[in-house]
Amino acid sequence: MREVAVIGVGMHPFGRFTDKSLADMSREATARALEDANVKWKDIQAAYVGHLYQGVVFGQRMLSEMGYSGIPIINVEGACASGSIAFRECYYGVALGRWDVCLALGAEKMTHGLIPVPGMRPLESVMGYQVFPASYAMIFRRYHELYGLTIEQLAKISVINHNNGCLNPNSKYKLRLTIEDVQNSRVIADPLTMYHCCPNTDGAACAVLCAKEKASEYVTGPLVTIAASQLVSNSYETASVLENCVTKRACDLAYEQAGIGPEDLDLIELHDCFTMAEAWHLGNMGVCEIGEEGSLIDSGDIEIGGRIPVNPSGGLLAKGHPVGATGIAQVCEVAWQLRSHAGERQVEGAKVGMTHCHGAQGAACAVHILKR
């Protein structure tokens, strides 16, 4: 397969935008990515569009409203991993030689209310396990029982990510929180409070991919290339609530494909839909041993300036979670970090970064490793 470079990225800030259509936001993100890549629309050979709630032929509707048409447009849905899967399909389209230049776009306008967990059995619905806050509250209680993870340690994740979000102009929340602020916010699913949970938001993100051998036609300087792209799904079986096999399998495959280990990562953008999700994923990624997540959080290693900064963008907790856009926004952040374009939140010397999106409690898990 050919090597593939990410030559341009762009975002519309995440938040609540009642005065803008999704086409407006998509247009802004796409225009920024094309400008960043020094690419004209006529150079784009295909577009992969990730979304969850936007209806049929969403990509065709968005791109035609933006004045872009005439190319293959592929719509992608994979719950919270939709954008990441669109990016992966775009990557393989270039890597396998079908396209030389194409783009991945993710966009979403979120409605109010909880997102149900698909595929749950009737008993799980009756027990209240069919909504995500409740499921992560249950995972926390089990982790606390087995490993001693505390709610204060989870609150510290929220504090860290919200502090990072203050440094990100694209972030929805720019709040300096304390552990007390997190714990005293409104209860969502005991013991998880509002600031333990990510906000549903509006937003769009776009990335332009190009065969590495042709990238010099558009950009100069060091390239950000895709070293690994993996997608896995869970098994239909009754399993322990603690088993997060999709994250572990996806990361293990990505490390093998990239020829590295977790110790070689300079930063991670991971799927922190809840504080417990971040803790849960860290152990399964190999950043620490399973059961040692609390000590890792307390050590400062996951903060900007630490051993392996996690979610320097602010993550889903602070930046927000417009589902279809989230995975591509993670790619934008890692690309900016590897190009030293991340401003106040810059991870010094970053050369290798990983993105991780976890859809519908493991129905899809997409992991990408980018290198400079």
Summary tags:
single chain, 372 residues, alpha/beta, Peroxisomal Thiolase, Chain A, domain 1, 2 domains, nine-stranded mixed sheet, two-stranded antiparallel sheet, globular
Describe this structure in words.
By secondary structure, the protein is of the alpha/beta class. The protein has 2 domains: 133 residues, Thiolase/Chalcone synthase (Peroxisomal Thiolase, Chain A, domain 1, 3-Layer(aba) Sandwich), CATH 3.40.47.10; 221 residues, Peroxisomal Thiolase, Chain A, domain 1 (3-Layer(aba) Sandwich). It contains 12 helices and 11 strands. The protein has a 9-stranded mixed sheet with strand order 3-2-4-7-1-8-11-10-9, sandwiched between helices. Strands 5-6 form a two-stranded antiparallel ribbon. A hairpin with a 2-residue loop joins strand 5 and strand 6. Helix 1 crosses helix 2, helix 3 crosses helix 12 and helix 6 packs across helix 9. The chain starts with a strand and ends with a strand. About 3% of the residues have low confidence.
